[in-house]
Write a structure and sequence with these properties.
- The longest helix has 18 residues.
- Helix 4 crosses helix 5 and helix 9 packs across helix 14.
- The strands form 2 sheets. The chain has a 7-stranded parallel sheet, with helices on both faces.
- The chain has 16 helices and 13 strands.
- It is globular.
- Helix 9 links the parallel strand 8 and strand 9.
- By secondary structure, the chain is α/β, with parallel strands linked by helices.
- It folds into 2 domains: 188 residues, Rossmann fold, CATH 3.40.50; 183 residues, Glycogen Phosphorylase B (Rossmann fold, 3-Layer(aba) Sandwich), CATH 3.40.50.2000.
């Protein structure tokens, strides 16, 4: 009989965005159950697509003590019923509740993957509380996996867990990159021309693209200030924003909202289930984030042959090598970000970076998806 493996995320979209295909792959070797919230039926759709059983447990991304206790009890009951060999959690809330419940349910192997630390931007009493929660989560786990080497250093520096419990699998990343799916050759010139025309992007325009949540922590305020300056200086520049806003959790400045709605050179397309078409018509990715784990979007852009302008933070600076396949700038510095965007624009017709095919090959050689799945599978098999 296959051993039981339970994977948990706070919201089901994390299964789709962070772990697409991985649970189905693991089902060849384990009896896999996926647990997450399911307010809109997406979890059920995910289970049907991946051919996996799913269980809904209502979890929130906010601090909600009563709801969290209810979710903790539900998880505990499921673990006692299912008797898993491994519980593997992702995302902060699912990690905390999942590891505590698995600890009390006496699950032998309690694994938690860290893909970012939102608490790093918090201060005061909230930061102290989140630090405590993080330490409790790690204490209840038997193994902690950081999805980047830089993030592992931050975890150790903050004393969240002992180095013997912490590990980075492969070259980092939670899921690697599907190099066949993210391939620029999937899109014809005619398709790209049609999409650019629909977005009022002229043939000679240089297109920067941001993909992610439209929130403060992703550096959106700095990006909008930098691009406003760039757009005032140069005619043939555009910025595509792909992603949703989060007004309650992490709103951007009013001035940024006004620029996004009022600047005709900024094109907003909202959340997209498939970001490849927008990468295909763009020239450079910009991700001026304050914090990351191991950003999938930088891998995706690189696989599509795009250089990236990224913040000098863990994850980003492990994918982008300054001057080779992009530029690295300090976080929270719109002036340096502007200068980097200007530099790339002014040198757009020169061999400033590696050729697109070489940028793509760098990603393939280190982060191919099935290779990363095998790192995880081999880790599961090594547990005893």
């Amino acid at each position: 009989m296959k051993k039981k493996l339970i994977r948990i995320t706070t919201i089901p979209y994390s299964f789709d965005g962070l772990l697409r295909g991985q649970l189905n792959y693991m089902s060849d070797y384990f009896d896999v159950l996926a647990i997450s919230s399911d307010s809109d039926g997406f979890l059920q759709k995910f289970g049907e697509r991946e051919r996996l059983p799913v269980r809904a447990v209502s979890m929130t991304r906010k601090i909600t003590p009563f709801a969290d206790l209810k979710a903790l009890w539900q998880l505990y009951k499921i673990f006692r019923q299912e008797r898993p060999y491994i519980v593997h959690s992702h995302t902060p809330k699912a990690g905390t509740l999942g590891m505590i419940a698995a600890y009390f349910a006496r699950v032998p192997h309690r694994l938690h993957t860290i893909a970012g630390l939102p608490l790093l931007e918090k201060r005061g009493a909230v930061r102290l509380l989140l630090d405590l929660i993080e330490k409790v989560t790690y204490a209840c786990a038997t193994k902690i996996y950081s999805n980047s080497f830089g993030l592992a250093e931050i975890i150790l520096k903050n004393g969240y867990c002992d180095k013997n419990k912490l590990k980075v699998l492969g070259n980092g990343s939670s899921n690697g990159i599907d190099i066949d799916f993210f391939n620029p050759e999937n899109y014809t010139c005619a398709f790209k021309e049609q999409l650019r025309t629909s977005l009022e992007i002229a043939p000679g325009d240089y297109v920067f693209i941001f993909i992610g949540r439209i929130v403060k922590d992703k550096g959106i305020n700095e990006l909008i200030r930098a691009f406003d300056r760039l757009g005032q200086q140069y005619e043939n520049v555009k910025l595509i924003l792909v992603g949703r806003t989060e007004e309650e959790l992490d709103p951007i400045e009013v001035s940024s909202k006004n620029s996004i709605s009022g600047n005709i050179k900024i094109k907003t397309v909202g959340t997209q289930m498939d970001v490849r078409p927008f990468l295909a018509i763009s020239n450079t990715l910009v991700l001026p984030s304050y914090r990351e784990g191991f950003p999938n979007v930088v891998l995706e852009a690189g696989a599509m042959g795009l250089p990236g302008i990224v913040s000098n933070i863990n994850g980003c600076n492990e994918i982008v090598e300054d001057g080779e396949n992009g530029l690295i700038v300090p976080p929270k510095d719109d002036d340096k970000l502007y200068k980097a965007m200007e530099h790339i624009y002014l040198n757009r017709n020169k061999d400033f970076f590696l050729k697109p095919e070489k940028i793509r090959n760098r990603i393939i050689s280190k982060f191919e998806r099935k290779a990363q799945w095998n790192y995880i599978l081999n880790e599961y098999r090594s547990l005893s």
